[in-house]
Amino acid sequence: MNRILTTKLFFLLTIFSNSFFYSQLRPTAIFGDYNNYWTSQNNTATYVTAQDTNNLLGLTVGGLTYATGVNNARLTANGVSYVNENYRAFPTSFNTLNTSQNFLIGIPRYVNGVLQNQTNTPSLSCDTSLGYYLRDGLNGLDLSTAVFNIPKQDLTFYVNVLADINPSCISDDIPDIIVTQVGEPSTTFDVFKFTDASGNTIGVQKDVNFSTVTPSGKALWSFYYAGNCPHGYNTGSGFSGTTRDIRVLTFKLSDFGITLSNYTNAVKFVQVLSGDSDVAFSAYSTNSLSLYCLENGITSGTPLDTKTGITSLGRAGSEASNDNWPMVRKGGYLALESTKKPFVITRTSTANLTNITNPVEGMMVYDTTENCLKVYVNSTIGWKCYNKKTCP
Question: Average pLDDT in the 57-77 region?
Fold first, then answer.
């Protein structure tokens, strides 16, 4: 074969190979709110080890900084120009049947300046699901809490039951998904992919060896045993009071081979954990994806009384009856009770939704045109029928 043609072919194959296998991007900078404002790029002495709560404020990819929506004013106050985006942690739950001494919950070494150790925090309650530690903090984007060495399994998120991938975001150049690794990664691979309802991969999967990813910073941790209840403090050498690297990667929908012709088939986003995964969170752009999950409610612990109620049955409070109502309706903020009167919220047609001039996230109405309860998501998505189970 002609040498020039051979060279060109090699060059094209190299480009294809790199775009296929390495299209995920490491941010050149990440920004957090540790000590009000924190930035880390190359893990050098110039940058500060985070020792307290550290929510992700933004990240720089491809020369542009994208704000996460956690605290954009904090970026502005520190002279950071940004593209206004909004990211949230995937709503996560996972199997915890593992008592390995390496299966750990990590929290910041200090919380509001208070040292987390065997004296001040001898254990963590099991009333909180382990999935909480992968979606806590502002927008769920706390880099300083994580679960380490999660047992090998799939984390599955339903993202597209009603075409909830925004097709206008497929071909833009804005990061759609953020993933993290905050421990000491092995050479095993984590896998990220979209699938259809039967589990078949839509597009291509992304295999990530986090040990090859350059760290973006460091954090100081306290560790607790995740497989035990209560989660006792880990006093072992090399654990609590030591640092771990923070690694962050971003993906675009197109990195997964998601296109206008296949996106409606992609109903799940799946993270296949290697067994050595140390995850602070995995997150998505709310402009690109709308999600729901199937996480079961927490049934352990002591439920709290419901203190406020409205009833048409002529009873209220322990002094008025033996029912101890509404306190007996555990775990609520407000209890409504009647055998004849239903609860009715604002009713409006789809066309008249535009008359609500200042909608806020979480606002609810009943759409009489589409015959569904609608929730206002954000300015990009607008009002959406609320007909799928969701998680906080």
Answer: 96
Higher pLDDT: 1 or 290? It is 290
Tell me, yes or no, whether 96 lies in a domain. yes
In a domain? residue 129: yes
Question: What pLDDT digit, counting tens, does each position of 234-272 carry?
Answer: 999 999 999 999 999 999 999 999 999 999 898 889 999
Order the strands of the 201-208 sheet from edge to edge: 154-158, 268-272, 190-195, 201-208
Quick one: 371 and 281 in the same domain? no
Residue 231 lies in a domain: yes
The count of structural domains within the chain is: 2
How does pLDDT run across 174-207, given as a tens digit for each residue? Answer: 999 999 999 999 999 999 999 998 999 999 999 9
Reported for 66-74, long-range contacts at CB under 8 A and 24+ positions apart, including other chains, are 66/174, 66/175, 68/139, 68/141, 68/283, 69/139, 69/286, 70/33, 70/138, 70/139, 70/141, 71/33, 71/138, 74/33, 74/36, 74/37
Q: Are strands 309-311 and 335-337 parallel, antiparallel or unpaired?
A: parallel
CA dihedral over 47, 51, 54, 56, signed as positive or negative: positive
94-110 pLDDT, tens digit each: 777 777 888 999 999 99
Measured in degrees and rounded to the nearest 5, phi and psi for residue 34 equal: -60, 130
- Residue pair 99/229 in contact by the 8 Å Cβ criterion: no
- Which domain covers residue 143, as residue numbers? 23-285
Position 24: which residue type? Q
Measure the CA angle with vertex 326, ends 321 and 328; round to 5°: 85
Is 70 exceeded by the pLDDT of residue 292?
no
Residue 255 domain-assigned (yes or no): yes
Residue 16's SS3 state is helix
Other CB atoms within 10 A of residue 246 CB: 26
71-93 core/surface letters (b: 16 or more CB in 10 A; e: else): bbebbeeeebebeebbbbbbbbb
What is each CA distance from 94 to 224, 234, 272, in whole angstroms? 17, 22, 12
For residue 110, give the nearest of 37, 148, 54 by alpha carbon. Answer: 54
Nearest to 194 by CA among 150, 168, 157: 157
Q: What percent of the chain clears pLDDT 70, i.e. is strictly above it?
A: 83
Q: Whose structure tokens read 């929908």?
A: 253
Residues 279 and 353 in one domain: no
